[in-house]
Amino acid sequence: MADSINFLYPEKWLLKASVGDRITCELRMRIIAGLIESGAILSENKLAADFSASRSPVREALKKLASENIIRLERMGAVVIGLTEKDINEIYDVRLLIESFVFERLVRIDTEELTKELSKILEMMQVAIKYRDADEFSYQDLLFHETIIRSVNHSHILMIWNNLKPVMESFILLSMRGRFQETYNDFTRIMENHALYIEAIKAKDRSLMIQSLHKNFDDVQGKVDDLWMSQQMLAKGVGLNND
Amino acid sequence: MADSINFLYPEKWLLKASVGDRITCELRMRIIAGLIESGAILSENKLAADFSASRSPVREALKKLASENIIRLERMGAVVIGLTEKDINEIYDVRLLIESFVFERLVRIDTEELTKELSKILEMMQVAIKYRDADEFSYQDLLFHETIIRSVNHSHILMIWNNLKPVMESFILLSMRGRFQETYNDFTRIMENHALYIEAIKAKDRSLMIQSLHKNFDDVQGKVDDLWMSQQMLAKGVGLNND
DNA sequence: TTTATAATACTTGTATACAAGTGTACTTGA
DNA sequence: TCAAGTACACTTGTATACAAGTATTATAAA
């Protein structure tokens, strides 16, 4: 693969991944980071050359990214859509929707094991903060919510999550990397929100859960204008390093 | 493509489709109809031979079906999961979830044009019933709900619908074909439910909408045990014709 | 008879080749 | 200068080839 530019996607997450998956993840990161600007037209042949690969894995990547709505496959070339602020708001709409749904089921089952698992993840997040590991923190943050969703055993709700996850992952990765550099004390509040989430599950308190969800999301959404956009600029200029 | 067996998917819906799409749709139908039983192992090479195509479009198809959770890609071969009763229930969970969400937005906008469009679709459905055209009826039925969802311009909710749609399409196609043969008078009630839905939108009456949605879904779900399972048997034995 | 090893017949993932179609740019004619 | 047509470069979709890996089966040794 081309090494003229640093990879944005954590390489350690791709240890056993295929070339197709690598291209998918890296392309997604570059699009969401704004390195590949929206409106740009991607050619299978050109991408294959850029990544020193054949068209097969590139095709696979484009199909996936199209299903995530960050590119649009047309007759001649794939047009980059990118991630707009509207998309980010919509994604949180969907997260609120499915996590609320999940919580409804949650209050009806035994959550002993779940909350223990969540506490473990919370401590992992704390360690990640301590060692300024943005990628690890992002991973655990996503895992936190995925663990909750998985706990109710609803395969179609999980499917929605899985379709949403890659784009969220990229977004959160970029966002957290920026925060670790600039607004480090944000993390105190993020941790508090997550702790509150666990409390809501333990107490089976619906309104408390909604409250913590909103807090968490408002926290992120409020930052979109300034932090996110500046982050996009940052990514364009720097090309973050992660090995 | 092999013509040793009749195709389950309407050929007229595939007029401009690629080989990959054809294989995707046909495989999905056969899996959901139970022609390909759950637990079966699909080989890319074997499927390519069966459909007189190469591995490329078959691969594409398997990737898509895996994203729909009706097959599972493993190291050696793709394992058929199929559509269980649990899946059908879960799909309706999700439909209730997103259509409720959509309705919340709907009550805040002008629905003049939407209801007119829906009335048109309703009349199309009536014609389809009159001429015993199960495929056309299924198409309009799905279009009815998709039109409602599209009207609120929420691309991520639409994404959820799009991911769900193919499986629902297959299921509804098979279900409706069976009903046209066996329980023809079901359609009176289906039409009433849809008319009620339009009324709910016009009146912006939330509880009326939920009521019609539940009626519509309960109607379908109640039939699952008997009708759906018998339909599966039917499909296995007959191999429906549609040209 | 059982166990270890080797041959085989699969599998996936990737590369490459080719056909058919589409847009662009250039040439030719007025 | 402008219009129509033609060649070319580039696109997708599909077929085929190949490498690397995995289960299975057959063979050989104990």
UniProtKB/TrEMBL annotation, chains A, B:
Q: Which domain of life is it from?
A: Bacteria
Q: Molecular function (GO) terms listed? A: DNA binding; DNA-binding transcription factor activity
Q: Which Gene3D superfamilies match?
A: GntR ligand-binding domain-like (1.20.120.530), Winged helix-like DNA-binding domain superfamily/Winged helix DNA-binding domain (1.10.10.10)
Do you know which Pfam families this protein is assigned to?
A: FCD, GntR
Locate the HTH gntR-type domain: which residues? 17-83
Look up keyword Transcription and say if it applies: yes
Per its UniProt record, what SMART domains does this chain match? FCD, HTH_GNTR
| InterPro entries, per the entry | GntR_C (IPR011711), TF_FadR/GntR_C (IPR008920), Tscrpt_reg_HTH_GntR (IPR000524), WH-like_DNA-bd_sf (IPR036388), WH_DNA-bd_sf (IPR036390)
Keyword annotations for this protein, in alphabetical order, are:
DNA-binding, Transcription, Transcription regulation
Provide the coiled-coil residue spans: none
Does the keyword Transcription feature in the UniProt annotation?
Answer: yes
Specify the protein name. GntR family transcriptional regulator
Please name the source species: Peribacillus psychrosaccharolyticus (Bacillus psychrosaccharolyticus)
What are the top taxonomic ranks of the organism? Answer: Bacteria, Bacillati, Bacillota, Bacilli, Bacillales
